[in-house]
Amino acid sequence: MGPSCHRCYEVSHVGHPVPLARRTAGTLALSQCLYFCAIAIGLTLTGIVGSDLAPRASLATLPFALLTLTSAATTVPLSLLMGRIGRRPVFMLGSFAAIIGGILAAAAIFQRDFTLFCLGNALLGLFQASSQYYRYAATDAVPDPAGKARALSWVMIGGLVAAFLGPQIAAFSRDFWALVPFAGAYGAIAGLGALAVMVLATLPLQPVSQTASGDTRPLAVLAGQPMFLLGLLCTALAFAVMTFVMTATPLAVIACGFSVDASAGVIQAHLVGMFAPAFFYGKADRALRRRANGERGPGAVSAQRGGGADGA
To answer: What is the pLDDT of residue 305?
Structure first.
């Protein structure tokens, strides 16, 4: 079950479902690309900028931590809001937050204001929270199970494209204002947010279902099931490890004497590793036991830990 509540599901079998589903998936794939381009800039540069603006070194990663905390705090409220007004307005709201957050972060660099930089990044967390629902919106627009898998693949393609574009945008835009390094990159985030608003404005506006079908189980019942708790725990641990590692990675790259461009390359490899496996995971999930397939993620983390220690 995705993070969206049952009231957030939208009717997908109105009009002509196949063209509607394709249009929805294509729009959300492009939106996913724009979002991950923005988050790639943040992953690449926020720790570095934070270390320059922070009053002490221990606060360098606070701005990106606030982004993550804002995302976690607003995910459920955004889901409830989608249940009332639909997904498209909420998606556009998240993109507007990216515009404001990017502008504030760029202004903070100009003014060398760490508090303002933290505020700008916190607003980007709202963009992150809303974008987590793109894939669910794409699959909900498709009435048949096979089509849902294809819609999900379309959205994942958007993330994979961003894996190549995002870090490069960070590298090329950071010196847009030569006298104020890195400010241009956050201006680029604002621009990506503006593009996302325009793209999401074309998302088909589907009517929100008022009630779910009769056999829907309450959330309290689902939350008490062992498989739900296992999935929740695995997801929380995986996201925590990813955030912990990738927030510190750009700082570690710079500390080892490498360039910002090298840091962008590391983030690019990370994002490719996030999305490339999605294209064959479905087949592997059918061919193998789901539990066995899921165990490959922790195995990869353990290998990365060993590799990272050797590199250090």
So the answer is: 45
pLDDT at 131: 94
- Are 250 and 268 spatial neighbours (Cβ–Cβ below 8 Å)? no
209 CB-contact burial (10 Å; exposed 0-12 / middle 13-18 / buried 19+):
middle
CATH for the stretch 7-207: 1.20.1250.20
- Residue 114 in contact with residue 59, Cβ under 8 Å? yes
Compute the distance between CA of residue 72 and CA of residue 125 in angstroms, rounded to an integer. Answer: 8
CB 60 within 8 A of CB 251: yes
**In this predicted structure, what is the pLDDT of residue 265?**
84
* CA–CA distance, 20 with 116 (Å, rounded to integer): 41
Q: Report the distance separating Cα 224 and Cα 26, nearest Å.
A: 36
Which residue in 98, 89, 152 sits closest to 120, CA to CA?
A: 98
pLDDT of 213-257, one tens digit each? 445 677 777 778 888 888 888 888 887 887 778 778 888 888 888
Tell me how far apart the alpha carbons of residues 278 and 259 are, in angstroms, rounded to a whole number: 30
Query: H-helix or E-strand containing 101?
Result: helix 87-111
Higher model confidence: residue 123 or residue 2?
A: 123
Q: What is the pLDDT confidence band of residue 118, given thresholds at 50, 70 and 90?
A: very high
Rounded to whole angstroms, the Cα distance separating 47 from 32 reads 23
Listed residue (264, 266, 274) closest to 41, CA to CA: 264
d(CA 125, CA 163): 19
What residues does each domain of the chain span?
7-207
